[in-house]
Amino acid sequence: MSLIFIPPPLKLNTSEIARYAGVDLYVLRLDLMHPWVNGNKWFKLKYNLLEAKEKNFTTLLTFGGAYSNHIYATAAAGNLFGFRTIGVIRGEERLPLNPTLSFAVQQGMQLVYLNRETYRQRNTPALHKYLQQRFGEVFIIPEGGSNLNGVRGCTEIVNEAIAFDYICVACGTATTLAGIALSLHQGQKAIAFPVLKNGAFLAQEIESLLTNYLASGLPAPYSSPASWELVCDYHFGGYAKVNNELRLFSQQFTQEYDVPLDYVYTAKMFYGVMDLLKQGFFCRGVPQRGCRRHRLLLVHTGGLQGNIGMEERWSDRNTV
What we know:
The protein is of the alpha/beta class. The protein is built from twelve helices and ten strands. Strand 3, helix 3 and strand 4 form a beta-alpha-beta unit. Helix 2 (about 40-55) packs across helix 3 and helix 7 (about 150-155) packs across helix 8.
């Protein structure tokens, strides 16, 4: 199933900020693995797709907002691997469809809309039963691919042969952070940057995912997770909230290092890392044995397709 994907390139960043901070800074470009099904979304979908195939399901059903990277990736993956797909979308239908939903329809996804109150029940047995009665035997993947299959896939993001002191990732559902923490040894640390306001609540979600995964018997590189931390100060007002400062940072970073960032996730994480480098945050403690400098890995989780819709909305606001 993975043969159509290229290994994600690992790129050294030449930032003067990192050099001055005494840190070797690398970027893992998950966004380059595939044109449509890339970033952490592929890793969260991989074992869900395999389970659906093994159990002879022909239809995938999942959930997301109108600009969801997960909806985009699931529609493309379903088309690539021969599944019918149904996307349950939060909110009312708005025409014309935005670029994310237009792409999903082009990939063959059937869109179904739920009002926000009903959508909040997306993880309940009652709503799942209703959807299965309506659409028949469907394999349900939770919003964002946030289940144990998703965690399992994310244990494969950071290769154990790559020696880094810190691994940084943007955080939405915490599935990716949980998988990465399970793939690191005890001398490493995973740091997640929630893109939601008041993201400290994700600590409980992470603990739950880690506990349930280790109790499930699914394969894990280590018997206990490595150290991890949430840095909740770089959400810029909340999920999908972007101001001019973040936009300018993203554009300048792309121009200087040829690494495009998505505004919702990676731009916030990269901004946070650069700010923390200035504060000496990553020089706490002792680097790994044999390393003169700390080695820091930033995981680029993709999601660049979402920039099109964001920029269209900004353009509409500025049009008189």
